[in-house]
Every structure is written in C-alpha cells, then in structure tokens.
Write a sequence for this structure.
C-alpha cells in the first residue's frame, strides 16, 4: 500500500470519520481556514486513482467513501515505520514508546497482559 501525503491523510481521516460525503461536505469538516473546493476535489480524484476511495454517482455529482479502512492503513503504515526506522524490530519499536511516553505501571501491565494473551493464542 502506498504511503499517503500529509494532506491525503488529512482527507482520509475526514472520510473515515464521516464514512461518505460529497466534496462540499468534506470541505466543511476541515478547520478554518477551509481549503478551496477545487483543491479538495483534486485531492479526492487523486485518492480515487490511488485506490483509497470510491464513489457513487448521483447525476453530475459524486459521493465519496473510503475503500481502505483506517485500521488497514494504520497496519500498513506501522509496518513501514518498523521496517524503515527500527530495523524490522517490533521490540525496538515498543521499547521506544515505553521510554519516550513514560508509560504508567498500569499501562505497562496492560501491555504485558496483551502480550501474554497473544502468546497463549499461538
């Protein structure tokens, strides 16, 4: 799966939130100052070409919807980050989050429980 630009991700986050929408509706979900209608229209068409969104046609207008779920994209994105920045080591990745995020004992215990439950499933 291709990595999205920051602007593309921003639009996808809106579509994941609203599930479907016309360009005019999508623009309304942007914070002020809102981007121009034509900018979002171009971005939507680009994302459609990349296979991230689809549309339903209503006369001369299109209602857009995500073809890729937020979870699918997140999983792909995390795999790339782990590969590119952590030498494919999930252990190094989790270690960084533990060190940098100053996780509480409760958070650490939840992580340990999650790991142990996944281990038992294998």
């Amino acid at each position: 799966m291709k990595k999205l630009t920051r602007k593309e991700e921003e639009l996808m986050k809106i579509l994941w939130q609203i599930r479907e929408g016309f360009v005019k509706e999508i623009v309304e979900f942007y914070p002020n100052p809102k981007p121009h209608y034509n900018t979002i229209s171009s971005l939507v068409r680009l994302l459609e070409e990349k296979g991230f969104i689809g549309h339903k046609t209503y006369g001369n207008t299109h209602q857009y919807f995500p073809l890729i779920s937020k979870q699918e994209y997140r999983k792909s994105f995390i795999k790339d980050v782990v590969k590119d920045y952590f030498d494919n080591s999930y252990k190094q990745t989790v270690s960084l989050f533990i060190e940098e995020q100053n996780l509480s004992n409760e958070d650490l215990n939840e992580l340990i429980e999650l790991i142990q439950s996944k281990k038992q499933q294998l």
About this structure: The chain has six helices and two strands. The CA atoms of residues 10 and 39 lie 13 Å apart. The chain has two domains: 6-66, 70-121. The radius of gyration is 19 Å.
